[in-house]
Amino acid sequence: MIHRRSLLDQAAAVRSGEVTAVDLAAHHLHRSIAAQPVFNAYVTIDQAGALAAAEAIDHRIAAGEDPGPLAGVPLALKDLIDQAGLTTTAGSGFYRSVPTRAATVVDRLESAGAVIVGRAGLHEFAFGFSSDNHWFGPIRNPWDPDTSPGGSSGGSAVAAAAALAAAAIGTDTGGSIRVPAAL
Hints:
The protein is α/β, with parallel strands linked by helices and 183 residues long. 36% of the residues lie in helices and 10% in strands. It has 6 helices and 4 strands. Helix 2 (21-39) packs antiparallel against helix 3 (47-62).
């Protein structure tokens, strides 16, 4: 199963033509959508955006261009980090921002060929350790769905641990990545 291969192996598979970026993104999107009712890892799964980005990677490869070191690799992005054109909620019931510019980390990932498949859930405003979210529901631990993955980057942790994405971006101020890593 390609989703069990490392991030670098998945990128190599796309570059070599073993799998297309569209097929790789579709595979991870399918896994993400199927797992959403159980794990609630995402605030938004961006099927259209991910498939369009993957198609652009495939066109670059077909044209003989270097797609970048992360060629077609599906990533999840904590819904605290701006992504141009998609709503950032910060896990809040009232905060909504649709940025016209992406955060630097997003620009760099996309320039390297990464495909963002979804916006990962979090503890509201990244202020908590459980990733239980009053507005979007609790995020569940993939090893034991009756428990929390920790937080606030719980959605990112679940997306990576359950291989819903090849990797995920979180943030950490007071343990938001370290707590999920420990749990």
